[in-house]
Design a protein that fits this description.
about 220 residues, alpha/beta, Rossmann fold, Alpha-Beta Plaits, four-stranded antiparallel beta sheet, 13 strands, binds ribulose-5-phosphate, NagB/RpiA_transferase-like, Ribose5P_isomerase_type_A, isomerase, Ribose-5-phosphate isomerase A
């Protein structure tokens, strides 16, 4: 099965967890895209929910599909969030931020009671780290911040957009992509990165996912 179909299968399964009256966090990326589409379909069929997005891209998509949107000022908690990931281990430790939305994704995830990750089987790894860790940093002095990250043992580069300019996140920050190789102790590395002055947040999502829905190439769905 092709990658798009697998993304659809995982997304469709995740949307089954959403019930009337819930506040739902909307992820970012090409897999979360399908979850937003399926949610819109269920809303047309009568499902009543309010949603909060992890990026302007997902916010705009959701609004264009008629999904009712809310914000943190008007809610206490988020019942379910459905998001993609760049890598997951079988014990649900994640790398996220390939779409540069990791900061809002982590804020939404931290406010969520039941955090669902949807992936195809290619994202499941034994050890995290083949995918470079995206790190959101403030623009001021980012070269110095990048050197500190490098001193932790990474090869680093500031992320560029399609026009070759430094990519700016929704929060007007930059992303440093840091290659640490395969990571032995993700929790420790997460702390070490976030202790660097100038770092806002990093793409290691440790002990956050409640379930990971994996779509396999043969069309079966596995829930981790
Ligand atoms: O973390 C993310 C965006 O910041 C995405 O969830 C992650 O990059 C996966 O994206 P896709 O589903 O397109 O592979």
């Amino acid at each position: 099965m092709d990658a798009t179909v697998l993304k659809q299968l995982a997304a469709e399964k995740a949307v089954e967890y959403v019930k009337n009256g819930m506040v739902v966090g909307l992820g970012t990326g090409s897999t979360a895209y399908w979850a937003i589409q399926f949610l819109a379909k269920r809303i047309q069929q009568g499902l009543s929910i309010q949603c909060i997005a992890t990026s302007t891209q997902s916010d705009e998509l959701a609004r264009s599909l008629g999904i009712p949107m809310t914000n943190f000022a008007d809610i206490q908690t988020i019942d379910i969030t459905i998001d993609g990931a760049d890598e997951t281990t079988s014990d649900k430790q994640l790398i996220k931020g390939g779409g540069a939305a990791l900061l809002r994704e982590k804020i939404v995830a931290a406010a969520t009671k039941f955090y669902i990750i949807i992936v195809d089987e290619n994202k499941v790894v034994e050890k995290l780290g083949k995918f470079k860790i995206p790190i959101e940093v403030v623009p001021f002095g980012y070269e110095a911040t990048m050197r500190k990250i490098q001193q932790l043992g990474a090869n680093v580069a500031v992320r560029l957009n399609k026009a070759g300019k430094i990519l700016e996140t929704d929060n007007h920050n930059f992303i440093i992509d840091a290659d640490f190789g395969l990571i032995e102790h993700p929790q420790k590395l997460h702390q070490q990165i976030n202790e660097i002055v100038g770092v806002v947040e990093n793409g290691l999502f440790i002990n956050m996912a409640n379930i990971v829905i994996v779509a396999h190439a043969n069309g079966t769905i596995e829930v981790l």
